Amino acid sequence: MKKLKFFLSAYLLTLCMSVFIGAGSATAFAYDGGAEAVPCEHEYIEQIYDATCTENGYTEYVCELCSESYKDNFTDVKAHNYSETKTEPTCTEKGYTTYVCVDCGFTYVQTDVDETGHNFEEVIVPNDCTHKGYTTHFCTNCGYTYTDNITEAIGHDFVETVFDATCTEIGYTQHVCNTCGYTFNDNIIEKLPHNYEAVTVDATCLEGGYGHRV
Q1: How many angstroms separate the CA atoms of 50 and 63, rounded?
Q2: pLDDT digits over 35-49, tens only?
Q3: Residue 210 and residue 214: Cα distance in Å, rounded?
Q4: pTM score, whole prediction
Q5: Helix, strand or coil for residue 89?
Q6: Any idea what DSSP says for residue 214?
Q7: Which of 30, 64, 146, 170 is at 20 to 30 A from 36, Cα to Cα?
Q8: 205: Cβ–Cβ under 8 A, 6 or more apart, which residues?
Q9: Bridge partner list, 189
Q10: What is the Cα–Cα distance from 70 to 192, expressed in whole angstroms?
Q11: 8 Å CB contact between 65 and 43
Q12: pLDDT tens, position by position, 159-196
């Protein structure tokens, strides 16, 4: 009974002890109840790990008896499997391509095309009597707008006509701009009073005489 217990203890010790010798080879020892160590007859299970775009591939061997393991048959990391998204350049921003690996998500951006610059069209607005003149520059690509070449308003060029007051019409001065036609009146004078004359109509054999004002 004591021998059996000793043998079981030695066997368990064999499962827990592993000594690696050389590159990937290993020998495990057990005790058979005496002083002599017994090497483990490894029974390996192999597991193949394929290479990815971030890690090497390899084959791993694990002993079913003592759990000792080693790796070999290494393969290189695979290339990334990129999807591409192109972003076109604008007037002020460069164009670029975004690369995203569909397997691991690694992303980088590569600038491909310079900015296009603005494509301006000009609209010239002349000044007039009351408004400033200017030039508007409008980009047909992006809508950016700026204004320059400002000129001041020229002011009205008035011609004056005086209308005298009468007993039926007020008097005033009329101002008409020769350039734009703007008109206003000032110097208003009220209507004059009527200037009557007395007229006498003599009586006849048929009508009586009378007087009135004209």
Answers
A1: 21
A2: 566 788 888 999 999
A3: 13
A4: 0.49
A5: coil
A6: -
A7: 64
A8: none
A9: 171
A10: 127
A11: yes
A12: 999 999 998 999 999 999 999 999 999 999 999 898 88
